[in-house]
Each structure stands twice: as structure tokens, then as C-alpha cells.
Amino acid sequence: MTTLDPGQSVAASALTLDHVPVPADQVVSGNPTTGLRVLDERDGREIGIWEMTPGTANDTESDEVFIVLGGRATVRFEDGAQIELGAGSVVRLSAGMRTTWVVHETLRKVYVA
Fold this sequence. Notes:
It is a single chain. The protein is mainly beta. Helices cover 0% and strands 59% of the residues. Strands 1, 2, 3, 4, 5, 6, 7, 8 and 9 form a 9-stranded antiparallel beta sheet that branches. A hairpin with a 2-residue loop joins β3 and β4 (45-52). The two termini are 16 Å apart. The relative contact order is 0.25.
């Protein structure tokens, strides 16, 4: 885990993230991997950088707000709605939402959960 000290800066789009395969029971298609770097964790909230390589995977969300730094994806919701994500997209998710992430180009985001 990397924590940011007050006044410290990081290049979120350039941080190296260690990737792991998405758990097999979540993969719908492809061989997606995810990388994560926690930047701060306190008072019940976490701020970090997350990315996923191309592929499709199911997820159950936590309370989160994120902004996409780069890449492209479609997020499909259980109720049939979907959103398109690209650089600059800002999204709020609620705990328990069931989603399917279809990543077209490696997607990187900064999140607060």
C-alpha cells in the first residue's frame, strides 16, 4: 500500500499497478486482470487507483465515486441500464449494485469508496 502524505503528489495515470486475474467466477469473457493501489485509507473511506484490462466481468459494488483517467468501458446494471465510460467520466455507485463491466480499452480510475 502506498499512502500519500499531505502535500505529496503522484501521477495517477503513470503509477505502476500490480495486476491479478479477475476471479474465475466473475469472468464473463476474455482474461481480464485488475490492478489496485490504495493511496489513503482512514475514517472508513479509501482512495485509490484501480484499472482493468479488456474483458467482461461481473461485480457487486460498494459505495463509491470515481473519475476515469483513461480507457473505455461499458457498465451494465442489473435493471438493464448501461453507461459508457471514457476519460473524464464521473460516476457514483451504491453498495449492492450488481454490474457487468465490459472493458474495451484498459480502464483506469481514481476512486473514493
